[in-house]
Amino acid sequence: MTSPVRPILFLHLPKAAGTTLKSIIERVYGSDRVAFLKAPRGEVEAFGARPVEERTAYDAVAGHMTWGDVPIVPGAHVITMLRDPIERLLSWFHYQQTNPNAKLHDAFAGLSFEDAVRRSIFPGQYNQMTDRLRDPDVADAAGAVASARKNLASCAAFGLSERFAESVAHFGRVLRWPETEWSDLNVSEGRPRAGDLDRAILAHLRRACGPDYELYDFARRLFDQRVG
Prior knowledge:
The chain is 45% helix and 10% strand. It is α/β, with parallel strands linked by helices. The chain has a single domain (8-227), classed as Rossmann fold. The mean pLDDT is 93.
């Protein structure tokens, strides 16, 4: 059998089925061959400061990183997962509200998602996919989308949360992964869905998440081309 492609760098975009994909990566390469980096703890910077031969010794590196972190693993095959922007926001909000250890748990206590949107508590989360996939020196919205689209297209493979099974199969074909059993992890149960939202809130979010929707629409078309 041909060995799986290595090294890979998984840019884990928050609340886009990344936890489940990380578990698959660990099964494919083995837990001792994978470095899972936690950005809030400074692990990405610490890993990047290690000698290059140590960084490239891993078969896979994964974490909540940005495109600016890609050079920490020279020659890596970059992969990522995207999700419908509003569904991603809803999942993120539900996680923050229900997890006592989450950063904004106290701020969201007793609030509905719609109330939090009306109070403009977390607009910095609206376009996280574009922000994390753009080149770090691009700041304007139009340039950020173009940069994120370019970088996404250069990935060895990427998937869509809403088409997870197809995405795993695509990763397997491109990266020579063996068939691996998996189950959904870190799923937010009982949260509202985009279709449940007030129409005015939904319209507001579609405008506010414009860059992420441009990127996501591009991703869906490109994914269709790649999976056939």
